Amino acid sequence: MTSQQQNGPRSAARASRGRVNPMASVALITAAALVGVGVLAVQANGSAPNKAPAAAAAKQQPPASTNSAGQTVTPAPDPALALPASSGTGKRMVYSLSKARIWLVGPDEKVQLSAAVVPSTVTPAAGTYAVSKRIANNQSADRVAVQYEVLWGPKNDTTKFAMEAVASLAGDEMPPKPEAKTGGVRLTQNDALAVWQFAALQTQVVVVA
Description:
The protein contains five helices and ten strands. The termini are far apart. By secondary structure, it is of the alpha+beta class. The N terminus is likely disordered. Strand 4 and strand 5 form a beta hairpin. The chain is globular, with a radius of gyration of 31 Å. It folds into two domains: 38 residues; 121 residues, L,D-transpeptidase catalytic domain-like.
């Protein structure tokens, strides 16, 4: 082959085959981008929590409003949710029988959590107890599968009562009232987990009327 043949212009057919249709390239890039966005959306949906922490925290805060001067006003806390008086000192869990509610109180006397509970069918006497045992997964006395079980009770039966969650329920779903005899005081999964993380062995449990 001569030098002129090697350097000569290509035929129209060869030139057509060597070029890429710009519209086809745009279409392929767009399709690939849409597939990538779809995959990311599926991954994000699969890993997203049932409830965003910010939303959960906002739910516990009383809604703020503004006065005539445009100043933000936060409503006073509900007295019914206030920590009961004469409920001990130091780090403790306070359980009010009449209010069906618990409070987790830190060593600085600040309430870390206040949560509604479903009382047990066996009622503890008012007094001070201590956490004696913790069981991650168990079966309660009424044969319900429970988890995050924190046990406490009188000296003659230190595991008679427990704070626990029903294992089959969603994170913020309140458990139903027990139908059979049990000392299990039940909370939502989220609140029971908070109790589990707070209540180490020998943590005080103060039961008030």
